[in-house]
Write a structure and sequence with these properties.
alpha+beta; eight-stranded antiparallel beta barrel; 8 strands
Length: about 250
């Protein structure tokens, strides 16, 4: 009696027989001895594809870092610009509110630089290009004067004048600092030659001690803080309302 020979099991790792993932049958290419087969090649290629997606090279990481940094800078710059415009809008509205509260008209004011503890001041308010009302406490006691521009000469003529004094003057517009410039002055009694401009005093009147002190405080305050007046808009409007009220008496 001839015994049936049992089938020889396939070796481990042998590519000759492989079950498909769907029905457990041998793949067509493998069963027919046609090589590895499409499914096996796809199975070997797929992990590499996921490997490429999951792990980035140093160059890719560097590019992503630079890209994120660029977007962060753009967002930061945009936020800073937005905050700047919001702040300016708030300051503008605050100034308008203070103007309405104190009923102050827009003014162009020039103040001689006399920081604390100076007891002198010269505060001039322009009515137009040729007229000004000034509060003066220098060599002739505290007073208010009206001056008119009668002539204007080039600064080259300043070499011929007898200089009576020199100082710096602060220019304000609507309670904000505009500039600071140097003054060369020649005293001609009723006329003052300032940087080539001749101003004539047409009248003068005394002012009270109370107003004198308020104008002095105003002059000191501006001289001490002219480079950073933004935090002091309320104080500036209060002082300018006093100046505006006094100027209105002499128009």
């Amino acid at each position: 009696m001839k015994l049936a020979r049992p089938p020889i099991p396939p070796k481990k790792g042998s590519p000759r027989l492989r079950l498909s993932a769907t029905d457990g049958q041998a793949s067509e290419g493998v069963a027919e001895g046609g090589g590895w087969g499409e499914e096996f090649r796809h199975a070997r290629a797929e992990p590499k594809r996921f490997h490429r997606l999951g792990i980035k090279t140093a160059k890719q990481n560097n590019f992503q870092f630079l890209l994120e940094k660029r977007f962060w800078r753009a967002e930061t710059r945009s936020g800073a610009n937005q905050a700047f415009f919001v702040q300016k809008k708030f300051e503008h509205r605050s100034v308008i509110a203070i103007i309405l509260i104190y009923n102050v008209r827009p003014m162009d004011i020039e103040i001689d630089y006399n920081p604390t503890p100076s007891v002198n001041y010269f505060v001039s308010v322009g009515l137009n290009d040729k007229e000004a009302i000034s509060f003066d406490n220098t060599t002739k006691g505290f007073r208010v004067i009206k001056q008119v521009l009668i002539s204007k000469e080039p600064n080259t003529q300043s070499s011929k004048i007898k200089i009576s004094g020199e100082w710096d003057t602060i220019v304000l517009k609507d309670a904000k600092f505009v500039k600071k410039y140097h003054v060369i002055w020649e005293d001609k009694n009723e006329q003052d030659v300032v940087n080539g401009e001749t101003w004539e005093t047409v009248w003068e009147k005394p002012i009270s001690k109370e107003i004198n002190q308020l104008i002095l405080d105003f002059s000191r305050f501006v001289s001490d803080n002219y480079e950073n007046l933004s935090p002091y808009q309320k104080e500036m409007m209060r002082y300018e309302s006093i100046v505006d009220r006094e100027v209105g008496k002499y128009k």
